[in-house]
Amino acid sequence: MTAQNDEDLALSRRVAGGDNAAFAMLVEKYERPLRSFLARTVAPDIADDIAQDAFLKAWRAAAQYDGRARYSTWLTRIAWRCRIDRMRKEREGEPSEEGSCAPAALEIDDMLARLSEGERAALVLCEGHGWTHAEAAELLALPLGTLKSTVARAKAKCRTMWEGAGHG
Amino acid sequence: MADAFDEFLESSLAPAERLPDRRFVTAVQARIIFEDQLVRERRRLLAGLAKQLAALAAVAAAVWVIGSAAPVAQVRAEFPAAGTLLLLLAFGFIVAMFSRSSRPALAPVVAS
């Protein structure tokens, strides 16, 4: 167990004991990567709703965090389940074309929009958020080999688009 | 070895460097406070319901005991309407008691 996990485990135990200030510290620490991941994988207008739902569930389940996985991994798993529940309730359309005004962000959003949901999530986690293939495979409920090929396929598609746009 | 595309991909997909979003943190805290209130209110209602059921059982038992006592049974035999009146009075008492004890207690939480 890493020092980071120990610190988060201590905070999580305080949350389980009713300390809401400790939970605010966890929210401050992890809202940025979680919302960034969700903004890349679901429509922007529902990303924050799902993030809030995930934090609420993490607060309720604080006693269940055992420090074996990173807190961010545990939290993202919860968020992913919230996302699946949400998608079941309302059929999601294609992700919005609107996004950041930065040219690089527009380009990456356009590329991600052309990937399947699984490819998008796998690529964002493994290439952008530093997740291991094993962590992403567990989150997406895929065998490790399938996850690796999903990331490679997504990356190859993006490379083709990138080179097609004259960057190659 | 990472080429220009790998660098582009990593920098585009990594979470943007920024300070924590206080508005988001406050919104989550407000939802937690509301959820906390809901849980407490649910517990209070369940405890109240248990008390009311116990009171109802006690009143029913008392009515049954009184109703089966010899003098009352004799009155009931002579005036059958008296038993019905007694039951109606007991029912009215229970309704009045329960309606007085149910009060809305949950106030909405507004995020500042």
| CATH topology value of the largest domain in chain A | Rna Polymerase Sigma Factor, Chain: A
> How far from one another are the termini of chain A?
42 Å
Number of strands of chain B: 0
Largest sheet of chain A: none
- What is the total domain count of chain B? 1
Q: Tell me the name of the CATH class of the largest domain in chain A.
A: Mainly Alpha
Q: How is this structure best summarized?
A:
Chain A has 168 residues and is mainly alpha-helical. Chain A has helices spanning 3-16, 20-41, 44-60, 71-89, 103-113, 117-128, 133-139, 144-164. Chain B is built from 4 helices and no strands.
Q: How would you characterize the overall build of this protein?
A:
The complex is a heterodimer of chains A (168) and B (112). With 168 residues, chain A is an all-alpha fold. Chain A has eight helices and no strands. Chain A folds into two domains: 1-93, RNA polymerase sigma factor, region 2, helix turn helix motif (Rna Polymerase Sigma Factor, Chain: A), CATH 1.10.1740; 97-168, Arc Repressor Mutant, subunit A, CATH 1.10.10. In chain A, helix 2 packs across helix 4 (71-89) and helix 3 crosses helix 4 (71-89). Chain B contains four helices and no strands. Chain B has helices at residues 4-13, 22-68, 70-78, 80-101. In chain B, helix 2 packs antiparallel against helix 4 (80-101) and helix 3 crosses helix 4. Chain B is rod-shaped, with a radius of gyration of 31 Å. Chains A and B meet through helix 2, helix 3, helix 5, helix 6 and helix 8 of A and helix 1 and helix 2 of B.
